[in-house]
Amino acid sequence: MPYWSLYLKSLGMDAEAIGILSAIVVVTKIFSSFIWGWVVDHTGKRIQIIRYTSLFSMLSFCFVLFYNDFWTLFIILFIFSIFWSAALPQIEAVTLSHLGDESNSYTVVRIWGSISFIIAVLALGQFFDQNPIKFLLPILIGSMCLVWIHSLFIPEISSSNDINNDASFKSIIFKRHVIALLIVCFLVQASHGPYYTFFSIYLEEHKYSNSFIGTAWALGVLAEVIIYVFIHRVISKYNLRLLMISTLILTTIRWLLIAWFVDNVFILLIAQSLHAASFGVYHAVAIQYIHKEFKDQHQGRGQALYSSISFGAGLALGSLISGYLWDSIGSMQTFLFAALLSAFGVVIAWMGLQKNN
Do 235 and 104 touch, CB atoms closer than 8 A? Predict the structure, then answer.
């Protein structure tokens, strides 16, 4: 992801086009994640669905090797995203199912995704300082191939596919505190839209090298890794509402620092370390909320609903709007807009989340 916008820029695309093509990768999660969650809950074949969708994700993405115009890429990425959006929420549901009563230890497993991200961005930063950005494409395809291969070795976990309680699922999502939680998740990921889409371009425009860009991304995820080492102990001891409000405040501070101090390396790196809060703590707390509210036969759809609203609708809207704001009002103002979104999330969390959670 840190280098995808740079690849699109190398094709001569403007900020609006980059914003749209970045948004399309996540906008399909608004509906496809929930559809896949429904299929999984009704068939009980969670790992089988992950294997098929991982394979077709890789095969569909291969077409980017042959086309680089906007509308063809739009169609390719749309099809790819329908399959790719199935993987993450269902892998998380599988993980939580395997952990059982030890669900607080979810982050001990999730940490390995963060470690691999650090290795990738550091290595690719060095690589792209010496080689054209077009080599990103075969690297991405190779990564997707590895995802599919390793999905073949994950054991299926038995689950009931006898779902006759859809009314119960509806009653869950219309609870006041669940609605508040989903709005907060939407706003948090919407605030990340400018970051995921334009942070690399933002640093490049301020004369930072690809190596530094990779290092900055890696630092953020390193902070996330450190948090994941012990956050499961924190979650088991402290109030989830308090943790969510705290992480939203720190997220707002992060976007303000990036907006105002991009040319100050020390402050910029401090802002990157706050990724521990804006994603690490946030995601761990949100997963616990979802796991607590959506149980048994509702787990697949609950996890998919979280993914659809946050990483789908929220991130898509943030990416799309940032594409329009970037050229019209400026880069700094775009990150101030991100801060406004997360600040609004603080208000919603304070008013809407249950105080005893």
Answer: yes
DSSP 8-state code for residue 160: -
- Per CATH, domain 4-352 is 3.40.50.720: no
pLDDT in tens, 150-160: 989 888 776 55
Local confidence band at 18 (pLDDT 50, 70, 90 cut-offs): confident
Q: How far apart are CA 27 and CA 158, in angstroms?
A: 31
Q: Give the CA distances from residue 347 to residues 186, 244, 275, 341, in Å, rounded to whole numbers and listed in that order.
A: 13, 11, 20, 10
Output the six-digit token pair for 72.
């063809």
Report the 10 Å Cβ neighbour count for 267. 14
* Total-model pTM: 0.74
**Residue 89 near residue 304 (C-beta atoms within 8 A):** yes
The DSSP secondary structure of 10-37, one letter per residue, reads: HTT--HHHHHHHHHHHHHGGGTHHHHHH
Burial of 152 (0-12, 13-18, 19+ CB in 10 A): exposed
Q: How far apart are CA 27 and CA 191, in angstroms?
A: 15
Q: CA-to-CA distance for 11 and 192, rounded, in angstroms? A: 24
Residue-wise pLDDT for 293-344, tens only, equals 776 666 667 777 887 788 878 888 888 888 888 888 888 999 999 999 999 9
CB count in 10 Å sphere of residue 158: 6
- Calpha distance 281→284 (Å, rounded): 5
Question: Average pLDDT, stretch 255-275?
Answer: 93
**13 phi/psi in degrees, rounded to 5:** -85, 145
Neighbours of 130 (CB within 10 A): 8
What would the DSSP string read from start to end of 164-200?
Answer: --HHHHHHHHTSHHHHHHHHHHHHHHHHHHHHHHHHH
For the chain, give every domain's residue range: 4-352
Distances (CA, A) of 209 to 9, 139, 200, 205: 15, 20, 10, 10
